[in-house]
Specification:
Largest sheet: 6 strands, parallel
Structural class: alpha/beta
Distance between the termini: 52 Å
Number of strands: 11
Strand order of the largest sheet: 1-11-8-7-5-6
Order of helices and strands: EHEHEHEHHHEHEHEEEEHEH
Strand content: 15-25%
Low-confidence stretches: none
Mean pLDDT: 95
Helix content: 40-55%
Number of helices: 10
Shape: globular
């Protein structure tokens, strides 16, 4: 059996330190760090994710609010709500839960949240600073993956890492963080020809393609480490990732479980970004 790179031991190590930082901010500011989440519509998966974020914030002693808006809300209405949160001195972090109705354009949406409160790290200013290696909020899922790898002692310098997926949320920033850690990065996507011939070169394979079961044993270098970012609920209720776990477990040396792997790490980084915002917010 491969080593399971589960999130729980990482959370157990990070939570006490983060909780102390929350307590220090609360003492300094006279209030806990606050995260405001805007949820448009009633997507079941989004409701679960938002609930998990709220639960984690409360466990850490933070404030959390979910602002529910109907699916019929216009982009102008949501942007107006975001603008009011930007101006609210009691709010340290703002998150607009994806996915959104079709009327919303991501290329406009990324500018709405003030970069100082953009704890999801989607604003072009934060993205640009991250790519240049300048101080910025860390993109939640990719940075969560880096924390996971660090906790389990995975050496990145000089190793070949392959990222499958090129989304602005995961794939692109993931590749940049791996480069900053001195890994040699191969970056693949939906248009890549003969995907397996490239992924089989990787000592570390990070899959964020959004396609359940995309990666099988033919894609894996024996002994590779696999990070599965995908989360999909099948018709029978089973939750699976982008990697066929049952098929590859005999080949890999280590792999993240789904669920219980990358998802909780994403929430951990979101909480840390909110605390950083509160620590550095001008009074």
């Amino acid at each position: 059996m491969p080593t399971l790179l589960a999130a729980k031991p990482v959370l157990d190590a990070h939570h006490p330190r983060l909780k102390k930082r929350v307590e220090a901010v609360t003492k300094l500011r006279g209030r806990p760090p606050k995260l405001s989440v805007i949820l448009v519509g009633d997507d079941p998966a989004s409701q679960i994710y938002v609930s998990q974020k709220g639960k984690r914030a409360i466990e850490l002693g933070m404030q959390h609010e979910t602002i529910l808006m109907p699916a019929t809300s216009t982009p102008q209405e949501v942007r107006s709500k975001v603008a009011s949160l930007n101006q609210d001195p009691s709010v340290d972090g703002i998150l607009i839960q994806r996915p959104l109705p079709r009327d919303f354009r991501e290329e406009e949406l990324v500018y709405w949240v003030n970069p100082r409160k953009d704890v999801d790290a989607f604003h072009p200013e934060n993205t640009g600073r991250m790519i240049l290696g300048l101080p910025s909020f860390a993109p939640c899922t990719p940075s969560g993956v880096m924390k996971l790898l660090e906790h389990y002692g995975v050496e990145l310098s000089g190793r070949i890492a392959c990222v499958v997926g090129r989304s602005s949320i995961v794939g692109k920033p993931m590749a940049h963080l791996l480069l900053q850690a001195d890994a040699t990065v191969l970056h693949t996507h939906s248009k890549t020809r003969d995907l397996a011939s490239i992924t089989r070169q990787a000592d570390l394979l990070i899959v964020a393609a959004g396609k359940p079961g995309l990666i099988g044993k033919e894609h894996i270098k024996p002994g590779a480490i696999v990070i599965d970012v995908g989360v999909h609920r099948l018709k029978d209720g089973k939750v699976v990732g982008d990697v066929n776990f049952d098929e590859v477990q005999a080949i890999v040396s280590a792999i993240t479980p789904v669920p219980g792997g990358v998802g909780p790490m994403t929430i951990l980084q979101l909480m840390e970004n909110t605390v950083i915002s509160a620590e550095t917010m001008e009074t």
